Amino acid sequence: MNETLALVVLALTASIFAFLIPFASHRTYLLLRSRRARPEAREPWPEDHLPRVTVQLPMYNERAVAVRAVDAACALDYPTHLLQIQVLDDSDDATSWLLEERVARWRGRGIDVRHVRRPTREGFKAGALAYGIERADGEFLLVLDADFVPEPGLVRDLLPPFRDEGVGMVQAAWGHLNRERNWLTRAQAYLLDGHFLFEQAGRYRAGRFFNFNGTAGIWRRRCLVAAGGWQSDTLTEDLDVSYRAQMAGWRFVYLDDVVVPAEIPETVAALEVQQRRWAQGGVQTGRKILPRLLRGDFRIGVKVEAVIHLFGHVAHPLTWALALLLFPSAVARRALGLEYLLGVDVLLFTAATVPFVVFYWSAGELRGRPRRGRFREVLRTLALGVGLSAPVSRAVARGLRGARDPFVRTPKRGTDRRDAYRVSAVAFDTRVKLAMASLMTVYLVAAVAGGYWGQLPFIVLFLSGYVGLGVPALRERLVGSKGSTGVEGEDDEKRDPERRADGRRLRPDAGLLVGARAEVAEECEAA
User: Fold this and answer.
1) Residues 6+ apart with CB under 8 A from 451
2) 3-state secondary structure of 369
3) Which residue has the higher pLDDT, 114 or 407?
4) What is the pTM of this model?
C-alpha cells in the first residue's frame, strides 16, 4: 500500500470512528437515564367516569393472525358500552372473508366491532388510521397491529396517565410471542428489549421527545387532531406524528411495566422488510421534522436527542464502511511505519462496541434472560446488527435522497407455520451480504497470514453477521423460487379467494364458513 492511499484509508477510518464512538456512548447515556424515576398518575379511573375508547386494528392481508387479533380486542376488559372496535381492513385476499365472519359473530354477542373497508388503499396504514378516526366515536384511540395479542386489562392499564389533560399518548412495551423460534428471533428480542427498556425509557425519563411505536399505545383523540393527524408522506407515520404532537406541546408517557406480546419476524426477508421501512422512514421523518424543530423554541437537549434519534440509522452505512476499512487500516499503519499504533484500532473498535455489549447484556438482565449463554446471545445480536448494515444502508440512502416508496408491511405467520404471506429477500441485498462475507473471509486469511492478531475478533464478528444473514437469505430465495413466486400476498387464497387454508370454501352469499364450528362462546377467546 503506497503512502497516499494509506493516509486516505486512515483518515476515512478515523472519520467513521468519530461518528460511531459518540453514537455508541449515547447508548450508555440512555441506559443511565432510563434508571431515573419518573412517577406518573397510576390511579384507576372511577368506573362511573370511564371514557369511551376506540380500538383500531389496521390490517392488510393478515390471514395468519387476523382472527386472533379480533378475538383479543373483543376480549378486552372494558365496559362494552364504552368500547368500540374498528377492524380497518384494506385486504385484497381471503383475510376479508375471515374478518367478516368473525366480526359478525362478535357483534352477535353485543360487542361494538365494525369491519371497516375503504374504497382504495391510499396512504397505506396511515390512510387506514385516518379513515378510521373519521368514523370513530372514542375519546381515546388504542392502536394494535394485527400480530399483537394484548392482555384483557390493557386499556385500563394505559388510561390512568390521561387524567393529566396534557398527556397526549401513552405507550406500552412490546413482548415477544415467538422469541425462542430461532437465533434470529432471539437476537431481535435483545434489540427490541434494549430499545424499550433503555431508549424509550431513557428519552422519556430524561424529558426528551420519544415516539409512539406504531402499535400498543393509546392516543388522546384531541392530540392527534391538534398535531395534524396521520400523514402518509413518510414510511414511519408513527414517528412523524409523534414529533409533531410533542412539538405542539403534548406530553407522552411510557409505561415499561405494561407489556403487549407480538410476533418477531422469523426470516431474513421478513426482518429486512421491517428494518428497511423503519430506516428509510426515520430518515424521511428527520428531513421533514428537524428543520422546524431546530428552529423552534426547544431545549438544546431535546434538539440534540432528536437529531440522534431521527438520523440514528446513519450508523448502518458507517458500520458497513468500517467493515470495508477495518483490515486495510491495519495494513496502512504498517505501511506508514506506525505499526506500534496498531493497537489503536483495537481500542477504537472496543470503544465502539463495548457500550452495545453492556446495553444488550443489561436488557437481558432486566428481562430475566438466563446468564448462562447470554454473552453468546449478545454477540449474536451485535452480529445481526452488522448483517443488517448492507440492506439498511440502501434504505438510508433512499431516505436521504427523498425517495418515495410504498409501505410494505412486515410478513407475519401467526400459529400457521406455513408461509401464508411470502416475501422474497431482495436479490441485490443478498448478493451484497454474500460479497461482504467473502471479503471478510479474505480479510481473515490475510490477517492470519500477516500476523494482524488484534484484528481477528472483529473480522470474525463482521464475518458472522454477513454469513448469518446472507446464507439464510440465499436459501429463502432458492426455496421461494421453487415453491412460489415470492410475491407479497400470493398464496393459495390469493389465487382462489374463496378457499381457506384448511380447504373449506366460503359461502359467496354471506361470507360465512360452510360447516358450523363451535359457537362464539367457545371460540372467541383472546389467543
Assistant:
1) none
2) coil
3) 114
4) 0.86
**What is the amino acid identity at position 349?**
F
Active site annotation includes 90: yes
Pick the catalytic residue from 71, 89, 90, 491: 90
Q: What radius of gyration do the chain's Cα atoms show?
A: 24
**Contact criterion met (CB below 8 Å) for 54 and 136:** yes
What does the alpha-carbon distance between residue 243 and residue 248 come to, in Å, rounded to a whole number? Answer: 8
Summarised one tens digit per residue, pLDDT across range 438-448 is: 999 999 999 99
Query: In this structure, are residues 101 and 511 in contact, taking their beta carbons and an 8 Å threshold?
Result: yes
Torsion from C-alpha of 301, 302, 305, 310, nearest 10 degrees: -160
Rounded CA separation 317/400 (Å): 12
Residues 10/328, Cβ–Cβ less than 8 Å = no
What are the structural domain ranges in the chain? 3-32+314-483, 52-269
- Superfamily (CATH) of domain 52-269: Spore Coat Polysaccharide Biosynthesis Protein SpsA; Chain A (3.90.550.10)
Identify the H or E element spanning 86.
strand 83-89
Which residue in this structure is represented by grid cell 375508547?
A: 53
Q: Supply 89's cell numbers.
A: 381492513
Catalytic-role residue among 147, 157, 193, 238: 238
Q: Which three cell numbers stand for residue 83?
A: 368500547
- Catalytic-residue membership of 492: no
Provide CB contacts within 8 A for 448, sequence distance 6+.
Answer: 456
Cell representation of residue 186 = 432471539
Tens of pLDDT, residue by residue over 27-63, are 999 999 998 888 777 788 889 899 999 999 999 999 9
C-alpha distances out from residue 422 to 305, 392, 396, 474, Å: 37, 20, 24, 15
Beta strands in 140-203 (DSSP E): 140-143, 167-176
Separation between Cα atoms, residue 317 and residue 462, nearest integer Å: 14
Q: What is the rounded CA–CA span in Å between residue 195 and residue 447?
A: 35
